[in-house]
Amino acid sequence: MKAASLILLALAAQQPNLPARPTSLEYCYESQFALAQGPYQRARPAPGAAPARIDAEDSCYRGDPGDLAKCKRIPLEPTTAWTSGARLGDWICVSDGARSGWVPASELLLEPARARPIADWIGTWERDRGAGTVKIRATDDRQLVVSGEATWQSGPDATPHLGDLDGTARPSGVELVLGDPRCVAPDRGEKTDTIPVCIECHARLLLVGTALIITDNRMCGGMNVNFDGLYHRAKR
Q: Which residues contact 111 (CB under 8 A, 6 or more apart)?
């Protein structure tokens, strides 16, 4: 057996309680959290477990099982409301709306995410990174009306490309889908070839903690315009 293989086996033996690391870091970053197939669920510590996450932005893992020994695991605060999203192998991505990371599935107890009060959705939301604003109001029958504007510029003097988000829907748990949910699944880029309706604008909004996480199907505006990202309530 080669020396490199022996080293990998030795490092793996030092981490007997950690399953294999996800093969991809996609769908756990803040801007991609809403891309997972779901269902989005409330994540709590499993009985007798002390869950800890590997931060989604951590560069410790580069594809080698031995890298697990280099990854710092950050305990999940038990009083924080964590929502689960993507699943990859034995790992689950969780987010509190500001932080996200991978946790072994064995350390978590998942349950349906409770519906958020309509009042929690209502207001004006601004994207943390990039120019984007979304306004949400309620109708008499407890549906939510969403309208948004986003822009993208190739440079400070370039003409901005514009995007619009409009739709009415009823939230389910922490999720609000504008249009067809199939159009905002992880393989959204391929759906325009197989599902004709996906050439129109579709989006998924998740209310996680105090943050609104949005992703669309790249059909909501001009070149390079999208609504993907983390939003917080606009300051008065």
A: 41, 42, 44
DSSP 3-state assignment of 225?
coil
User: Two tokens at 139?
Assistant: 């109708």
Which residue ranges form the domains of the chain, and what is each CATH number?
A: 20-112 (no CATH), 118-233 (2.40.128)
Which neighbouring-strand residues pair with 100?
A: 95
Q: Which amino acid does the sequence have at 150? A: A
Mean pLDDT computed over 135-159: 93
Beta strands per DSSP E along 89-195 = 91-95, 100-104, 108-112, 123-127, 132-138, 144-152, 161-169, 175-178
Residue 13 in 3-state DSSP?
helix
What tokens does 1 get?
């057996």
SS3 84: strand
Handedness of CA 23, 25, 28, 34 (dihedral sign): negative
pLDDT digits (tens, 9 = 90+) for 91-110: 899 999 989 998 999 999 99
Write out the two tokens for 231: 């939003």
What would the two tokens of residue 183 be? 């159009």
